[in-house]
Amino acid sequence: MKTIEEKAQAYDEALARAKKLCEYPTTQPFVSTLEEIFPELAESNDEKIRKALIGELNTYFDKDTKIDGFSIERIIAWLEDQGQHYKFRNGIQIGDKVTRNDAGVLVNLSQLKRVAKPNEKQAEQKPAWSEEDERMFNSCCAAVAAADYYTLDDKQDIEDWLKSIRQKLKGE
Q1: Residue 53 in contact with residue 145, Cβ under 8 Å?
Q2: Pick the residue with more confidence: 49 or 100?
Q3: Cβ within 8 Å of residue 165, ≥6 positions away
Q4: Domain range summary for the chain, segments of one domain joined by +
């Protein structure tokens, strides 16, 4: 009979395999079944909205287009960065020690212990929310407001989502 640790390790391995399967186009018809088996695989609405925004910006704007002084390319990079912040927050487990380093960046000390190799130096991280983030946030809101292909409700949902990201990262 397997121990709890062995069962947990087997589950983690199965989850990792399922994640890889979700990435292949040929397995797309089975993703919903995998999400039922492994709820952790289901993409959140926040992540869906972030990806939709990136898709819309790529589709309807040239990379050189500027909104409030920011290129579409820079706005997309910022949105992608928000996905990294989201992954960090979702990587936190019960009992993890999370602190801020000297630069004010949130660091999950427990996760570092789980993934760090001996003598491995950790990369420097950016602060959770900066003045540039605030300008980019405002630019994204302006881009959504200017887009005539969204309904008013959709615009409000997107703006609310952006505000929730800002609040989470600012620690409000």
Answers
A1: no
A2: 49
A3: 46, 82, 85, 86, 137
A4: 1-42, 43-170
